[in-house]
Protein: Glycosyl transferase family 1 domain-containing protein
Amino acid sequence: MSRSSKVAFLDHSKILFIPVVGSILYKLQYFLYSNDLIKVIKISRKPNPIKDKLLKLISEKAKFTVCQSYKLGTSLSNVENEIIADFKIPYDLKKQLTQTIFDVCWSLVFSKKVTPETKKELGDFIQKSFPETKIILIPFHDEPGVICDYVFQTAKELARLGNLIFLVSFSEPKSIFKLLLEDSDQIKILENKFKNFDNISIYQPFSLLPIRLNKFGLVNKVNWIFSNLHLTILVRKLNRPTLWCLDWKDSTVLRLNKKLALGIYDCVDYWTSLDKNYAETMGQSEEYLIKNSNFFFVNSEALFNVKKRFRIADAVVPQGFDVESFTSNKQPRTKSPRLSRSLNKLLGKTENDELITYQKILSNIPRPAVGFVGNLTFRIDYELLDEIISLLPHVSFVFTESVKHTPEDKIRGELSSKINKIKKYKNVFFVPKTQNRLVVKEIINTFDIGIIPYDISLDFNKYSYPMKLFEYFFLGKPVVSTPIEELKRFPKFVKIGNTNEEWEKHIKNLLSKPWPKENQKQQRKLSEENSWRKKVAKITNVMQEVDS
Structure:
C-alpha cells in the first residue's frame, strides 16, 4: 500500500495479552505505523496505555479503520475515525458464549458501516437499515501517472456511492528492497488525482526482485506471481470483497481469489493483438474471466454478440462518458504538498491557463476543419488519411501530438514515418498533446466534423467502441468513421465511409450545410445517457436485483 493510505486495518491478536510482550509489540507497531511501513495493526482487548496511544495515532492518520475482528469490542471506543465492520462471524452466533455476543455487539456499536458479507452473516443481530459499504479492489496495469480513463472514472463513481476503493497498482508494485523509500512520482501523481476522495486508496503489492530487472522475462514473471500472491493475502483478510476486473490480465487475480471475492468482469474493449501467440494468451485469459466471474458486463452490442459464445452478459451497460469534465468551465489548482517541486511546477498552472494558450494556437487554424482527438497509434488507417487529406486541400485536418508507440509497430510498420507522411501536407495541423479536458473540449469545438479513422482490418478496431464518439456527440459534431460495428447504430449522426471516395463525399456533404440543432440536441442526450455515473449505476442495480 502507498505511504499516504487513508485506511488502517485493525485486527485482534492473543499474543498482545502478554504484559511485557504486548507493550513491546505495541511500541514496534507504533513506530512502523507512524512511518507508514504497516497498515495492519494488531491489538487485544486488554487495557494498555501504549495501545491507546497507537489507536489515537490511527485516528489522526487514517480516514477509515477496517475492523477485521469481532473480538475488538469496546477497544474500538478509542478509534475516532470512521470504522467499517468487516469481520467473519463464528458459525451460528446464537449458540456462542456470552462474551462472544458481547464483543460482536460492541464492535457494531462503534462501527459506522458494515460490509455486505458481514451483514449477511450477522443475520438478526443487526438491523436491516444498518448502513453498508462495499470494499472494492480494482486492479490496473498502466503507469499510475497516466492511468486509463475507464479505471479512473470507474473508481470515482464507485467512491461516490460510498464504497471503499483500493486501486491495485500492478504496473508499479512496491519493491521489498525499497520499503523505506518514498513513493514514486507516478504514485504521487495518481494520489493527487484522487485527493478529493478519502475513500480511494492506492494499493501497491510487493515485488520480490528489483523492478528494474523486469526487462528479463523470468524476473518479470516471478514478480508478477509474487505481487498476485501478496494481494491474495489482503483479500483473504477481508470478508469477501468485490474484485472489479477491467483488463484481461486480471484473470490471474480472479483465479487466485475466486473463492475469496465477488468477481466482476466489466468488459470495456475487444482484447487482441497482432502477435498470434500473445493474442492466444489474451483470449484464454479473457475467456476465464468471462466464464468464472460472478457478474459479466459489456458496454456495447458488438461485444455482446462477440462474447456470447462464452457466456451471455448479465447486461449491456452504457459506454462511459465523462460528462462532468465536459460541463465544467473551470478546474481547481492541482498543487499538492506530497509532490516534488518539479512536479508541482508542472501541475501548478491551472487548466484555465493552459486553455488560453491553446485558444491562441487553435485560432490560427483555417476553417472548415476536420479533426481527430486521441493517440496516434498503429490503430489508425494512415493510408486512408493520406488519400483524404490530399483530396481535400481546402479543408484543415487537425490532430494532437499524442503519439503512442507499441510493440505492434514492428508488425505494422514504422509509426513515425506514417505520421510524418501526413505532416507534409499544408492543410494538416498538429496541436500539442494534453490531458486537460477543458483543452480537449476546446480542440473539438474547433472542428466542423469529428473523425474516427480506425483501420477496421484489425478486429480490435472493428469491435471497439471509441470513447471519443461521445465527446464529439456532446459538443454537437457530426462524425465520419470507418465501418466500426458499434457505430453503425447511429446512422443519423455517424456517416460510415468504406472507401476514400465515400469519406470525401461524406465530408463534402456535411460541410455544405449547417449541422441541424435538433441533431446536436439528440447527440448531447445520447452522451448524457452514456455517462460513467449511469454505467456504474446500471451495474450496481443489476447486482442488487440478483442479490434480492
Q: What stands out?
A: The chain has 22 helices and 20 strands. The longest strand covers residues 7-12. The chain has three domains: 7-125, 135-320+535-547, 325-529.
